[in-house]
Amino acid sequence: MAAAPAAAGAGVCRGRRSAATVVAWGGWGGRPRPENILLQLRQGQLTGRALIRAVQFTEAFLTERDKQSKWSGIPQLLLKLYATSHLHSDFIECQNILKEISPLLSMEAMAFVTEDRKLTQETTYPNTYIFDLFGGVDLLVEILMRPTISIRGQKLKISDEMSKDCLSILYNTCVCTEGVTKRLAEKNDFVIFLFTLMTSKKTFLQTATLIEDILGVKKEMIRLDEVPNLSSLVSNFDQQQLANFCRILAVTISEMDTGNDDKHTLLAKNAQQKKSLSLGPSAAEINQAALLSIPGFVERLCKLATRKVSESTGTASFLQELEEWYTWLDNALVLDALMRVANEESEHNQGASEESGLPHTSARTQLPQSMKIMHEIMYKLEVLYVLCVLLMGRQRNQVHRMIAEFKLIPGLNNLFDKLIWRKHSASALVLHGHNQNCDCSPDITLKIQFLRLLQSFSDHHENKYLLLNNQELNELSAISLKANIPEVEAVLNTDRSLVCDGKRGLLTRLLQVMKKEPAESSFRFWQARAVESFLRGTTSYADQMFLLKRGLLEHILYCIVDSECKSRDVLQSYFDLLGELMKFNVDAFKRFNKYINTDAKFQVFLKQINSSLVDSNMLVRCVTLSLDRFENQVDMKVAEVLSECRLLAYISQVPTQMSFLFRLINIIHVQTLTQENVSCLNTSLVILMLARRKERLPLYLRLLQRMEHSKKYPGFLLNNFHNLLRFWQQHYLHKDKDSTCLENSSCISFSYWKETVSILLNPDRQSPSALVSYIDEPYMDIDKDFTEE
User: Fold this and answer.
1) DSSP secondary structure letter of residue 265
2) Comparing C-alpha atoms, which of 548, 530, 550, 533 is closest to residue 584?
3) Are 586 and 641 in contact (CB under 8 A)?
4) What is the pLDDT of residue 785?
């Protein structure tokens, strides 16, 4: 704790003025200028010297200046607050002063967040700014932290009501005055202390909201293991508090983003990972582990995520929550929207009761259904976010096991129609200044968070079959039996008591809404990603046929060709999904050829592919791999597809493959490789690995050399490719997960990947399969150091 400031009036006794006051007055004989006073206070706040607090002025001086400057009496109130908040005070008078200050700031904060600027425009110096400038923020921090001080072995106490007033005032000041939140974030002991205030239900909401804002600007992530009695604190939260607490957890368990685009390159990520290995687990990883060690934590999150609207907290407590804190869960915009709906439904109910002659119930005692639904939506999106982050963390398998055990997936399936993908009514609730299709809408955010969770849950994990119901699992078995292939082991091992119930599983429900989605919908990207994650990993014929029978391929082709989708993100997700759906599947290629049944349609399809290879290269890779497998099979059905399918005929041409190969290598460089475009490098390698199998690798390299010369850039492409392959070795030879993914998705052993790269990087210029053999000596530039320290 900082030492207490000098007593009120010290340094400004009768007949004497402090140097700071003299400066503020503009000299011994000049008239006092309020602007100078504020300037000096601001400088003192930044430097810690000269004027810092209201207690450095006399009350008479402040009163005189207030008449001219319209400070709303805030400096005088702070002077009194300091005098009545000393260690031995009973705080009664202190609380009364806080009650006077609070409305002066809360009205201004409400006007600020609702964009009603009249108040702030008319006031030269807004109340919150004056409150902070005269030391109000620091004083409230000291008052709040008084319980950390012991006098003769006994800790001081302040009432919950007083704590609540302090927290409200601090939050309002943070909202309106720039820099306050950052200053509070720098007080690490204060931030940790705030968590202890959440033990009281009376102060929980105010504390949680303030913590969330502070952590949002804090440079270094807080460590939850430093919070006293974290396990006990969280375990004692009721479900409503836990849902609110998830807003704080969202900040503490997500890896901090530096905001620098360079940090998203694989070079930078690899360098960061090397540093992380020497530093140990990150704060986010430590926080995730701390939460997972709390008994029943994940189970309670699953219950919150799957709770039906009718099971949510009763009307009275929710309305009380709204009244106590207008920034409930987000900010005043949410309250504004909630109360508007409540009033509309109340007026509607009142009109109906007057017509029927029946008594009506006040909106204050009867919570409208739309408000109940929004209440749940706001909670669930935070809970789903936390579960999603935990699913992607180091303890992924542990979280997966618990999520399955606590039946999160069947629970979400039961909520799908009524809450998650419910139909919008004409008066569907949206935030003030937004519309139903805005990404800021709680409805939209919940849907996206739900889809992200499904993607994380299904990705390369055998638990993905929990997205089906018993009948659908039986259908998978029947598909395998009919095709005379072994059943997928993960299907056989699926615990049938944990799968979805009802007529349709979650995956089937998702497919249904996906096919109905408008062309311009922002959901298309996330829907495609979620379904694609179900297909990722080792290719499963049964999984593909399950989706093909439900018309997924035709829907994708309609979106790519007939609707001529323009969104790059949506196109990429649809090409990736199409590739996984068609890979090695003869039936899928037959369906493709049946849909793309004219040259005009095929040309539109090719135009979409060639418009951006970064987006479509995964499809190119899958078709290339499928062609190679089909050419090595002796089967009438396969032979028929090979002879009829336009796409396979197109990819089989060497000039087509060389065109793709040249462009794939040309659009990426080591310094610009990211998780998104590194697939271009791997697709180019697939083309060359298959050429190597056919002993055509030297031919492909020679053709690349000719293409270089025809573009009048000899050596440019092959030097770049050489550097890319050197990086490939550094990146993949030390990351088991990535290498496993490459092997599973291509059905080419990783040892063959490594051998091919080594052959291409062979320094012997006499080797017909070495890149250096095709780079003329004057243009050789293969020893660049691209390592990022």
Assistant:
1) B
2) 548
3) yes
4) 67
Q: How far apart are CA 480 and CA 540, in angstroms?
A: 10
For residue 117 the two structure tokens come to 């600027």
283 has pLDDT over 70: yes
Scan for tokens 């969330």, then name that residue: 212
Residue with tokens 């009721």: 238
Helices (H), 218-331: 230-235, 239-252, 266-279, 283-292, 297-306, 315-324
Rounded average pLDDT over 268-293 = 84
Torsion of CA 601, 605, 608, 609, to 10 degrees: -160
CB atoms within 10 A of CB 764: 10
What whole-number distance in Å separates Cα of residue 399 and Cα of residue 291? 11
From the list 65, 136, 82, the residue with the least C-alpha distance to 104 is 136
3-state secondary structure of 500: strand
SS3 label, residue 748: coil
Give the residue carrying structure tokens 């899958």.
Answer: 622
Query: Of 629, 621, 616, 606, which is closest to residue 541 (Cα–Cα)?
Result: 629
- Four-residue CA torsion sign, 774, 776, 777, 778: negative
CA angle 124, 125, 131 (to 5 degrees): 165
Q: Is the pLDDT of residue 314 over 90?
A: no
Residues 624-646 have pLDDT tens digits of 999 999 999 989 999 999 999 99
In angstroms, the CA 694 to CA 685 distance is 14
> Residues 6 or more apart from 673 whose CB is under 8 A from it?
265, 266, 267, 681, 724, 727
| Cα-only R_g, the chain | 33
Helix 332-356 and helix 369-391, axial crossing angle in degrees, nearest 10: 150
Question: Rounded to an integer, what distance in angstroms lies between the CA atom of residue 517 and that of residue 207?
Answer: 40
The set of residues, in sequence order, having a beta carbon less than 8 Å from that of 403 and lying 6+ positions away, is 298, 302, 387, 391, 409, 457, 463
First-to-last C-alpha distance (Å) of the chain: 40
Tens digit of each residue's pLDDT (9 = 90 or more) over 495-513: 999 999 999 999 999 999 9
By C-alpha distance, which of 27, 31, 75 is closest to 55?
75
Question: Using 50, 70 and 90 to split pLDDT, how confident is the model at 24?
Answer: very low
- Give the distance from CA 725 to its chain's centroid: 32
Question: What are 138-171's pLDDT values in tens digits?
Answer: 999 999 998 877 566 666 778 899 999 999 999 9
